Amino acid sequence: MDNLINKNILFGNEINQASLAEFSHELALIKQFIELSEKYISNKKANIKLSYEGVCYLFAKSIIDYSKMVYDNFILGHYNSASMIIRTMIENYVCLVLIKKYKKEELWKYYLIASYKSTLKKTYSNNKKIDNMIQYL
Questions:
Q1: Can you tell me the distance from the alpha carbon of 30 to that of 71, in angstroms, rounded to the nearest whole number?
Q2: Contact 66/90 with Cβ under 8 angstroms?
Q3: Rounded to whole angstroms, how far apart are CA atoms 39 and 44?
Q4: For the residues 9-23, what does the mean pLDDT come to?
Q5: What are phi and psi of 51, to 5 degrees?
Q6: What is the largest CA-CA distance in the chain?
Q7: pLDDT at residue 66 is higher than 80
Q8: CA-CA distances (angstroms) from residue 58 to 12, 33, 47, 68, 128?
Q9: Are the beta carbons of 66 and 88 closer than 8 angstroms?
Q10: Is the pLDDT of residue 13 over 70?
Q11: Could you give the C-alpha distances from 98 to 83, 94, 111, 114, in angstroms and in order?
Q12: Phi-psi region of 25 (alpha: psi -120 to 50; beta: other; left: phi over 0)
């Protein structure tokens, strides 16, 4: 990996990379935490995606995936990219907390509907038939 970073194959900020050397112990702990989290969540994988547990799993999995991206961006010295990904992680975490806190209200169903609507709008933006269907969701 060091060869990739030092051979100008990647566009990482070398000054930022050098400043991380003093935090190698902390970075190792963060990497270990991400690996443990991933291992734990893989054991909890829900088979049914259209369920409360399935949505909670997807949010937790996305937070772990974003954590990996943040870690990689820190290693490469891409602090601005990392901060943008962290913002997305926080949004996902807040959604997960709200879905778990208001389980009786079944917010996860509203999330799924909104997610499907958004995906359909992006995918079929010029299709009038799909637009008419979406308004009834």
A1: 8
A2: no
A3: 9
A4: 66
A5: -150, 165
A6: 58
A7: yes
A8: 30, 19, 11, 15, 31
A9: yes
A10: no
A11: 23, 6, 11, 15
A12: alpha
Specify whether the backbone of 77 is left (phi greater than 0), alpha (psi in -120 to 50) or beta.
left
The closest of 63, 67, 49 to 111, measured between CA atoms, is: 49
Q: What is the pLDDT of residue 75?
A: 83
Residue 55, both tokens: 């949505």
> pTM of the predicted model, to two decimals?
0.72
Residues 46, 108: Cα–Cα separation, whole Å: 14
- Using a 10 angstrom Cβ sphere, with 0-12 exposed, 13-18 middle and 19 or more buried, the burial of residue 22 is exposed
Q: How confident is the model at residue 4 (pLDDT cuts 50, 70, 90)?
A: very low
Please answer whether residues 111 and 56 qualify as being in contact, where contact means their C-beta atoms are separated by less than 8 angstroms.
no
- Residue 54 tokens read as 């399935």
With a pLDDT cut of 70, the percent of the chain lying above it is: 75
